[in-house]
Amino acid sequence: MQVTSEGWPYPRWIAHRGAGKLAPENTLAAFRLGAAHGYRMFECDVKLSSDGVPFLLHDKMLERTTSGHGIAGEKSWSELSQLDAGAWHSRSFAGEPLPTLENVAAFCLHNGYFLNIEIKPTPGQESETGEVAAQHAARLWSGASVPPLLTSFRPEALQAAKAAAPELPRGLLLDSLWNGWLETALTLDCVAVVCNYALWDASTVTQTKSAGLRCISYTVNDDWAAQYLVNLGTDGVITDRVDLFSPAIQSVPQNLRISSPA
Question: Is 58 designated active site?
Answer without folding.
Answer: yes
